[in-house]
Write a structure and sequence with these properties.
Elements lengths: L6 E12 L3 E7 L5 E7 H7 L6 E6 L10
Antiparallel strand pairs: 1-2, 1-4, 2-3
């Protein structure tokens, strides 16, 4: 599959925490880093996301904001 986004991070679903409407999905990336995303419960079901499934985190943003205290 091809994407217009430049940042496609391939990994494996580590955890899925489903709430009433939204779900938190944790994807383990090669090298040990993790990325967390909040998506709808419906999207989790449609994508069949569960621990151990390969998945991609696709990031498309015009800005990245970095802050410190």
């Amino acid at each position: 599959m091809k994407y217009s986004a430049r940042n496609v991070l391939k990994g494996t679903v580590k955890e899925v925490h489903i709430g009433e409407v939204a779900a938190e999905v944790i994807i383990s990336l090669p090298g040990g880093s993790e990325i967390v995303s909040m998506i709808t419960k419906e999207s989790v079901e449609k994508l069949g996301l569960k621990p151990g499934k390969e998945a991609c985190a696709i990031i498309k943003a015009s800005n990245v904001i970095i802050g410190t205290d």
